[in-house]
Amino acid sequence: MNMNFKRKLPIPMDIKEEFPVSIKMQQDKVARDVEIRKIFRGESDKFILVIGPCSADHEESVLDYIGRLRTVQDQVKDKILIIPRIYTNKPRTTGDGYKGMLHQPDPDAASDMLGGIIAIRRLHMKALSEYGFSCADEMLYPENHRYLSDLLSYVAIGARSVENQQHRLTASGLAIPVGMKNPTGGDLSVMMNAITAAHHKHTFIYRGWEVESAGNPYSHAILRGYVDAYGKSISNYHYEDLAKLNEIYAKSGLENPAVIVDTNHANSGKQWQEQIRIAKDIMYSRSQNEDVKKLVKGLMIESYIEDGAQKIGEGIYGKSITDPCLGWEKTEKLILDLAEKV
């Protein structure tokens, strides 16, 4: 085996005991979980925004951004429920590039997985304790979920992971909504199979245990566009795409049909400025069809303090070091505009 076993990492229980959540934090998370589940069950007409940086990089700037979201959330609380993105581990298509705070708590330094585990837990804890936000993260590594399981209110499974059996089985054991992205090739049947698997009960191996899951009735679709055989980005956020997904859900018989639409990635062709137009286009589609309105529970938007992206080492505060994002001025205006269209 050509691997160097560097050190044994603490198990999630040990990390949770070292960095515990307070009773107030527990209560805030429970209240948010209840409200989010009501939206997915159709008992609340609020609209979800899963919004934030492509990747969390520096604690100071991420918390600065989340503080700004808190102010806007208070303004639109009757219409919109904001779930900040704190994405702490990043899939890399070729394996190269910044892999997120879990790997590199300091983007300019070497990998430090123990430091990363502590850094991402502290960041999620501060978002909850200081701003009342239980947040979203991507489940890149299913076995790592329990390091944050008492802090998260939303989990996304990426386009490259949605076919993986362990992701599907782990999702079936979570009590929070899990969004399943369509794969990079665009086959919606792959995404729907993943959602169906997550809805079901399973027995499987997790972190060395034989576990039984209860099934997750809040697992749902995320449309993020796809790339064709020639490398061209193809969007799937249009009215026709949403109506088609509604038909697929109707035939599936699944509980709580829902989709969160990703306004970036292949839907925008990674043209981050297009997220504004795409978001408004989706809101218009909702206004034209009651079934589509019920299906589309929210949007996923990549946003940070500064427009665009930078290379690691440039040092521009609040500017993405992975995919380009909407800056704060555009973000704030977009959120207020969307609240008027819900």
Describe the overall structure.
This protein is of the alpha/beta class and 342 residues long. The mean pLDDT is 96. The protein has helices at residues 12-18, 23-41, 59-76, 113-131, 165-171, 188-199, 239-252, 274-288, 290-295, 328-341, and strands at residues 47-52, 80-84, 135-138, 152-157, 178-181, 202-206, 209-213, 219-223, 226-227, 233-234, 259-262, 296-302. The protein is built from 10 helices and 12 strands. The N and C termini lie far apart (55 Å). Helices cover 38% and strands 16% of the residues. The protein has a single domain (12-322, 330-341), classed as TIM Barrel (Alpha-Beta Barrel), CATH 3.20.20. Helix 5 links the parallel strand 4 (152-157) and strand 5.
Question: What are the main properties of this structure?
Answer:
342 residues, alpha/beta, TIM Barrel, 8-stranded parallel β-sheet, 38% helix
Compose a concise summary of this entry.
The chain has one domain: TIM Barrel.
Sheet bearing the most strands, described?
8 strands, parallel
Distance between the termini: 55 Å
> Can you name the CATH architecture?
Alpha-Beta Barrel
Uncertain runs: none
**Strand percentage:** 15-25%
CATH superfamily: Aldolase class I
Number of strands: 12
Number of separate helices:
10
Helix and strand content put the structural class at alpha/beta
